[in-house]
Amino acid sequence: MFFHKKKKVQTASYDRTKKIPVIRSSICTGEKVAGFKEITTGKFEDLMCIRTNKDYQNFLTVYGIQEDEIKKEY
To answer: What is the pLDDT of residues 12-40, one digit of tens each?
Structure first.
């Protein structure tokens, strides 16, 4: 018998003073992309595609983000 070890969730960080978490959603296709937007320049850095709720929850846990912190853009 083989026993599988539970995978550790890697946490990542970002500069909370310079970037805000954003979910961009397409009006036409409904495609969602999670990433960070620079506060000063408005430049968006996409990190991952959100297809399911599990992807969304994974984004939250990896970066230590609360749901009320995320801004949604269309």
So the answer is: 788 889 999 999 999 999 899 999 999 99
State both tokens at 52.
Answer: 């399911």
Q: Provide the edge-to-edge strand list for the sheet that holds 32-38.
A: 44-50, 32-38, 19-25, 71-73
Q: What is the pTM of this model?
A: 0.78
DSSP, residue by residue, 3-42: -PPPPPPPP----TTTEEEEEEE-TTT--EEEEEEETTT-
Which residues lie across from 49 on neighbouring strands? 33
- CA–CA dist 69, 23 (Å, integer): 11
Q: How far apart are CA 30 and CA 55, in angstroms?
A: 15
Neighbour tally for 60: CB within 10 Å: 16
